[in-house]
From TrEMBL:
The lineage of its organism: Eukaryota, Metazoa, Chordata, Craniata, Vertebrata. Belongs to the claudin family. GO terms for biological process: establishment of blood-retinal barrier; maintenance of blood-brain barrier; negative regulation of angiogenesis; negative regulation of cell migration; negative regulation of gene expression; negative regulation of vascular permeability; positive regulation of bicellular tight junction assembly; positive regulation of cell population proliferation. This is Claudin. Keywords: Cell junction, Cell membrane, Membrane, Tight junction, Transmembrane, Transmembrane helix. It comes from the Eukaryota. Coiled coil: none annotated. Claudins function as major constituents of the tight junction complexes that regulate the permeability of epithelia. PANTHER family: CLAUDIN. It holds the Pfam family PMP22_Claudin. GO terms for molecular function: structural molecule activity. It comes from Strigops habroptila. It is a multi-pass membrane protein.
Length: 216
């Protein structure tokens, strides 16, 4: 029962991480304007995401524009788009695989095959966490490098946006949930690998021999 509960907990964490990745992918706040030096008082804030850029005026009005050309995008934007879309699809596959092999479902007869399917689902969640970590760290490295680069004008300096933090939180949930699913499934398989067999005590018959029906 404890193993099944932990497995459900891992599946829930994986689903939350998957939703978080989708949310981070759609948000335009991967990079935001940095208010430094002469940029302390500005009339607008610039948001840059994977799919669009937005300009937020001081009056509260916001205008967004989708990137015109895909091939003209910077390498980090192209990689970020590809990897987050792949993670979104893999997360759906991991959800279906884990549900099919979970202890709380009867899609497959209990046994080694069921445990292996659950381990595969947990491994896919872990893979999703590793893949989505690549564009997040790539963007963070670029933002930090440009921020401390004296050759970059202050008006072009950016800071890490909320989407990066949401993506890192989603990555932690995916990795932790996937590891939890794999560990619970492996422990369950170890417990059921060596079943205990009991045999009745052998009693001698009247002629001093053991009765054959007492053997198991």
């Amino acid at each position: 029962m404890t193993s099944a509960a932990l497995e459900i907990l891992g599946l829930g964490l994986g689903i939350l991480g998957w939703v978080g990745v989708i949310l981070a992918c759609g948000l335009p706040m991967w990079q935001v304007s940095a208010f430094i030096d002469v940029n302390i008082v500005v009339a607008q804030t610039i948001w840059e995401g994977l799919w669009m850029t937005c300009v937020v005026q001081s009056t509260g009005q916001m205008q967004c524009k989708v990137y015109d050309s895909i091939l003209a995008l910077r390498p980090e934007l192209q990689a970020g788009r590809a990897l987050t879309v792949i993670v979104g699809l893999l997360g759906l596959v991991a959800l279906m695989v884990t549900v099919v092999g979970a202890q709380c479902t009867n899609c497959i007869r209990p046994g080694k095959m069921k445990s292996r399917i659950v381990v595969a689902g947990g491994a896919i969640y872990i893979l999703c966490g590793v893949l989505v970590l690549v564009p997040l760290c790539w963007f963070a490295n670029i933002v930090i490098s440009d921020f401390y680069d004296p050759t970059v004008p202050p008006s072009q300096k950016r800071e890490m946006g909320a989407a990066l933090y949401i993506g890192w939180a989603a990555t932690a949930l995916l990795l932790f949930g996937g590891c939890l699913i794999c560990c619970c499934s492996c422990s369950q398989r170890d417990e059921t690998s060596f079943p205990v067999k009991y045999s009745a005590p052998r009693r001698p018959t009247s002629n001093g021999e053991y009765d054959k029906k007492n053997y198991v």
